[in-house]
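Escalation from tier 1.

The customer reports that the assembly of two entities below gives different structure tokens on two consecutive runs. Tier 1 could not reproduce it. I'm attaching the input and our single run for tier 2 to review.
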Amino acid sequence: MTDFVRAAREAAQRIAACEEKGTHAFLAWSEAALVEQAERLAKADATGPLAGEAVAVKDVIAESVFPTTCGSKILEGWRSPFEATVVRRLREAGAMVAGKANCDEFAMGSSTEWSAYGPSRNPVDPTRVPGGSSGGSAAAVAAGAVTMALGSETGGSVRQPAAFCGIVGIKPTYGRVSRYGLVAFGSSLDQIGTFGKDVVSAARLLGVISGRDDRDATSLDRIPLGEPGPAPASLKGTVIGVPREYFPEGLHAGIKAASDRALARLRDLGAEVRDVSLPHTKYAVPTYYIVAPAEASSNLARYDGVRYGPRADGGLTDVRAVYRATRGHGFGPEVRRRILLGTYVLSAGYYDAYYRKAQRVREAIRADFARVFAQGVHALFTPTTPTPAFKFGENTADPLAMYLSDVYVCTANLAWVPALSLPIGRDQGLPIGGQLIGAMEGEATIIRIAQALERAVNATAEVR
Amino acid sequence: MSWETVVGLEVHVQLLTATKMFCACSSKFGDPPNTNVCPVCLGLPGALPVPNEQAVRLAVRAAFALGCTVHPRSIFARKNYFYPDLPKGYQISQFEEPLATGGALEFVSAERGPVTVRIKRLHLEEDAGKSFHDRVPGMTAVDFNRSGVPLIEIVSEPDLRSPAEARAYLTTLKQILKYVEVSDCNMEEGSLRVDANLSIRPVGSSELRTRTEVKNMNSFSGVERALTAERERQIAATERGEEVVQTTMLFDAASGEVRPMRSKEEAQDYRYFPEPDLPPLVLTEKWLAAERAALPELPAAKRERLVKQYALPPADSAVLSASRGLADYYERVVKAGVAPKDAANWVMNDLLALSPDGETLAPAPERLVEVIGLVSGGKVSRQTAKRILGEMVSAPKDAALAVAERLGLLQVSDTGAIEGWVRETLAAHPAEVARYKAGESKLMGFLVGQAMKRSQGKADPKAVGAALAAALAR
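Tier 1 run:
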């Protein structure tokens, strides 16, 4: 029998300790809310693979214990009348929602610096960002407040913060996890992902939330992934592709060293490591920054102050003026930038040159992946990020520099393939993430390889 | 110069589904405001659309009924614009790859005879909510019950040549859509809405000139009036040497005039793009074949068949096939053994006279057949049949015989009684009897009438005639 209330109180103590250090991983949490959920679970004699587990939930996921603000002023205080399918599945598995994790506004950003409620800090080095947009979730796990957390990805927003914080993050195949209740950013790219202090934790959480959902027309008709198996002792027979486009001249020396060491461990485990090419990789960031803002400009149109959220209508009688004031005040600079960008690329006269062309390039990127996986490669290994965690303010003045921190992660979102990041070493104390990218629906394969690699590398050791 | 009018119509039709296009809310009309709503049709953060299979089926059925090519793969698209009654800030519709294209609709034009209008496309979409600008002074109220209700949009090519043809097209379209039970096409409840595009050109020209869009028409006659007004406006402007400007005109039913919409209300860039929340709508050949096979007989085919099968005059056939219900009714009467032309007369003259709207058909066909049987059997007179039928509307469970009895309308064919009335009549009119016997045979009608009067209409006139003839021959 799980002692739910005790588990809740212990989780509250860990979260309090995390937040007392100024991590600001959570936008909302409370011991009372945890205990109340625990009492409900106890009363129902809840059992399940996550019984008594407190799971942090990114604030873009609808849930009814706490507000769901998406890190935005435009949804300040918004309480969703319904819960996301993933939250329902968490509860059915016996878990509690620990609290709502901080993130960049509407998941647009790579550092949590665009959260309207202030950034989270990287628990490994509080002068640095935890990554983003799911930085609060990653920080909560890295700080030991929770052992698992839900994040979401549109272009690497789980894997990048996992790498920056030295934990594991998984982005499943598009459609593997229901998006019902995930506040949309770029619907054709969005996918809920999981964080864990280790591969098994992240994989277990994914096992619980995955599976077909009739409320999401894009969800795959597959049974849940379930519990991960034991870590394999050998990777004999496994072919790892190393895409040369991810290892350019001038790659950060620490990242390079960590990657080389991880590849050596994979060889030691018996895997065959093979040089491969994904020739359209260089178009991924520009393609992503057309597709995602285009969809975002439409997805965020509903925040107009008419039905919910704060409305700026002091003295205004014209509905268009109310829209302008509400959206002008409610959205932060990065969200406004992307709405403008997305509106532009969908406009009459520009659609063919931008959006339609981007969709074609996206097909080419997808075909790159399909081709290498058809050639007998089981997984690709790459660095997760081009640099370790950066300092606050380092990239906020230069949106392009910020966008380029997603260069190795946004390809998997464009191609819908699963990918994960696991810690593979440290450089000057900062965690470095290695990425494993799988074929469509190949989560089990990359999880198995990650389990073996995790045992074989010393993730907290300096790499040079 | 004489001018020709060129008209194309965009018709929005609400589908007869129990639930909305992308959620399980009821699509019923007339419920209290904002009671049929959920996170999906309110566009709450995180909600997602899931297509309604029945809506797809009805749209496909409409497409087949209009002779369209139904595409096995079509794409939902977002039409983006801001309005308080559009909760997501976009409407889910179809754009580049619609459900169906290339159909045709035939009707008889008063001016040109049989006309075929090409259907350009037919696509699925969701409705927006409804704004009320007058409920609360200075405020706009929005009812989201209509938000997400399934619609099809049927776009014609500019093949119509007059406002009257536009009206005839709509009448035919409505008849077809009601036949296949896709929509009730009720314009008052907004389940059929019409926008028109109109331009003019010199007679004999085949060019397409600048057109205007005409909106806010609330009835078929309103469409005809609005298009007439817009045609006259364009002709007057052109003859003054002005250019017709591409714009949207609003019809005011009270004044019968059209006025340009404020420029702020129009010229939107809808930024259509494929709806990423919905995969392509894929329909298998097998499913499509089954839907096509399940299509009921359409009005034109039924009109032709009734003429052929029952040797009916085309005018009768046109009346009887006005609605599927009426034609079915007629055929049930024929199947019960009534001669086809007699059945047609009964249905057109007696039954339709009792129908308030041409669609509510009472009494039931079995009851009408009973009444026809009573008349042909001499139990009641042809003249009293209408009264019996009228009574049966409010007493649907009672057999015709019982109703006739209750109303005292059963004819007497008992020879004793009839001979009594005949004797009385002959005794009362000796002069006429003498003239008849002298060869004034047309007086027979007078004598029958007198005898019938004595029977208070209950006697069988044939039997009376026979008895009179026999008595006079004696």
